[in-house]
Amino acid sequence: MEKILVCIKRVIDYNVKIRVKPDESGVVTEGVKMSINPFDEIALEEALRIKESGNASEVIIVSIGPDDSQQQLRTGLAMGADRAILIKHDEEIEPLTVAKALNEIVEQEQPGLIMMGKQAIDDDCSQTGQILAELCSIPQATFVSQVSIEGDKATVVREIDQGLETLEVDLPAIITTDLRLNEPRYVKLPDIMKAKKKVLDVIESSEMKTDFTSTIEVINVSPPPPRESGVMVEDVNELFSALKEKGLVS
Length: 250
Prior knowledge:
alpha/beta; 11 strands; Rossmann fold
């Protein structure tokens, strides 16, 4: 396999407490630490391991977002990716538009494997990989917790409601990764310095065939209601009484 294409998204770091804007038009991002979506970071780590095992010759990372997304792409290059592509677009876009734009990159690069996280932690849509597989007319394996590449086939273990499922898919294919697949490597300072010399191509969204006009309107964003304080009970009978008062048991 010559190329692996890894799709990453710039999101608010998972350690940051999310704050809603006063006008409820979205969440506060100004001055907030941004990172690679954790599931996508796992996908990149697995792609790098596949390359290091000799089953791929190049790892390419691609992201869609504002110019600041170059920071996350540089992090991916520091992890070990060979080159990066940024589709520059400042507005929020839905998964269908993301998949259409990524499909253009797939047609251009012709990767043997496409990897991404199973979902992004900001919108939790979990749709882009599945839509992209349909647009590319290639097999897909989602929620993957184990990957093995042999020749032109990939054997994966995926997590389902009933437990674990093992699939064999022909390459090229799309794999979306789960948290239990691996532990991403720590980026060292020398690698960060080397990443500055690697190729990062920027493509304006206006130059692409994909229509980036949003078809979804955000009416308002509001925080969840605060949790009620807990109640201490003396015994099981008091517990059942408290649950009956709340209508949770009959």
